[in-house]
């Protein structure tokens, strides 16, 4: 394996941060991962695997090996004659396949399950790490298992959905960063059960089609989700960003009640999935607070300073000019965290992964 030297990572992260990697390779198969692992051991250097780079803040040149995930095969069932086969079918995609391309292709083949997760930037491999979720559906709904390469030991293995410990924007991969996702295995349906509980989807379908539709097709849901995302969220191709910069904080029903007394109109949703480790038996129910609402309420929406700012249509998204540095984005995040904490008493957790010259670090208000 011959890595390239001093490669700019600007095209490989959606904040367009222009830092360099000492060493750089593309990973096409498991053998490439073994070679990369040997390289890091022999050179005693850190490593970083980039998928779509849509959940990453790079604050310094990286003094190690950067791998770009390029394993991108999709394994469709051999007898996929739509719509005559059984209701469910198994589909596997390698980690480097573009997520939204997979969503689009499943819908074209008449399958449902992924339509609410349309247009999420990034690659298939990132989906279980974050348990991607949008408009009432999480990956957990259709995940069967995940194939993993352990960069510490060089072993490969498979985790079931349960073993992935999926929660709201959470999974076992967050505490096992040396586990590299190489393939995601899904179960999809030909029997369509539309998930339109998230009101804005039904409203958008009605406004696109000019009539209210009770049983929309996967394609109609996809079109609506794409429309909503394009209206609310900046396209990283034109405005560098990593999507939601903070998680929606999970609080108890008691906290929601007392906050609502001070802040009428506070937006919150019941939480369906919480990792067991984060639950406390003393509280009966949990709610996600809309962090975008909290940030918006404090007047940050549309804020600009230097090359960074807060998106004008969704306060949860920090944007950057393309010439800004990762540290500038993080400084803004810290100011917002402090303001939210001071006013609402709630801690916002940063969602993207943060890297300096030697590896991952955390950057949160205490
Ligand atoms: N809101 C505001 N002002 C804002 C943003 C939001 O008042 O600037 C309020 C509105 O009342 C809105 C509510 O918050 O109705 C919820 O907003 P939205 O529907 O945009 O959802 P979200 O909770 O802010 C989450 C995900 C998004 C995902 C949407 C839709 C997180 C951290 N983010 O955002 O994911 O698209 O739900 O399901 O959970 C991403 O991961 O990059 C992402 C965009």
Task: Please give a structural write-up.
- There is one protein chain.
- With 366 residues, this protein is an alpha+beta fold.
- It folds into three domains: 4-69, Uridine Diphospho-n-acetylenolpyruvylglucosamine Reductase, domain 2, CATH 3.30.43.10; 74-189, 2-Layer Sandwich (Uridine Diphospho-n-acetylenolpyruvylglucosamine Reductase, domain 3); 241-361, Uridine Diphospho-n-acetylenolpyruvylglucosamine Reductase, domain 1 (Alpha-Beta Complex).
- The chain has helices at residues 30-43, 99-108, 126-130, 199-209, 218-232, 253-262, 291-297, 326-344; strands at residues 4-8, 20-27, 47-50, 56-58, 62-69, 74-75, 88-94, 133-134, 137-138, 143-150, 156-160, 179-189, 241-244, 250-252, 268-270, 286-289, 304-305, 308-310, 317-320, 353-355, 360-361.
- A five-stranded antiparallel sheet has the order 6-7-12-10-11. Strands 1-2-5-3 form a four-stranded mixed sheet, with helices on one face.
- Helix 4 (199-209) packs across helix 5 (218-232).
- The longest helix is centred in the last third of the chain and has 19 residues, at 326-344.
- The protein is globular.
- The chain starts with a strand and ends in a 5-residue tail after the last strand.
- Mean pLDDT is 92; it is low at 273-283.
- The structure holds uridine-diphosphate-2(N-acetylglucosaminyl) butyric acid.
């Amino acid at each position: 394996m011959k890595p390239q030297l001093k490669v700019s990572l600007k095209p490989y992260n959606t904040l367009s941060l222009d830092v360099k990697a000492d060493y750089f390779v593309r990973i096409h198969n498991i053998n490439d991962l073994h070679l990369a692992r040997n390289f890091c051991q022999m050179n005693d250097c850190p490593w970083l695997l980039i998928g779509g780079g849509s959940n990453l803040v790079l604050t310094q040149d990286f003094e190690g090996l950067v791998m770009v995930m390029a394993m991108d095969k999709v394994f469709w069932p051999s007898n996929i004659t739509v719509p005559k086969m059984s209701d469910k079918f198994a589909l596997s995609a390698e980690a480097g396949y573009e997520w939204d391309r997979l969503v689009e292709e499943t819908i074209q083949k008449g399958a449902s399950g992924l339509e609410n997760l349309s247009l999420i930037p990034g690659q298939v491999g990132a989906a279980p790490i974050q348990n991607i979720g949008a408009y009432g559906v999480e990956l957990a709904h259709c995940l069967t298992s995940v194939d993993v390469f352990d960069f510490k030991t060089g072993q490969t293995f498979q985790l079931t959905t349960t073993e992935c410990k999926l929660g709201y924007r959470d999974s076992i991969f967050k505490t096992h960063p040396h586990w590299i996702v190489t393939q995601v295995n899904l179960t999809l349906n030909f029997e369509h059960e539309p998930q339109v509980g998230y009101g804005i989807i039904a409203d958008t379908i009605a406004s696109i089609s000019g009539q209210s539709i009770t049983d929309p097709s996967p394609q109609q849901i996809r079109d609506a989700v794409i429309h909503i995302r394009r209206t609310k969220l900046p396209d990283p191709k034109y405005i560098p960003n990593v999507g939601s910069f903070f998680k929606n904080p999970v609080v108890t029903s008691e906290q929601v009640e007392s906050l609502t007394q001070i802040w009428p109109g506070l937006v919150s949703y019941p939480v369906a999935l919480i990792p067991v480790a984060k639950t406390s038996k003393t509280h009966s129910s949990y709610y996600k607070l809309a962090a975008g609402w909290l940030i918006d309420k404090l007047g940050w929406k549309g804020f600009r300073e230097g090359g960074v700012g807060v998106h004008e249509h969704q306060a949860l998204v920090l944007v950057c000019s393309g010439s800004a540095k990762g540290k500038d984005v993080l400084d803004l995040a810290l100011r917002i965290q402090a303001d939210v904490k001071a006013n609402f008493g709630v801690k916002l957790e940063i969602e993207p992964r943060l890297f300096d010259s030697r590896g991952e670090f955390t950057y949160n208000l205490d």
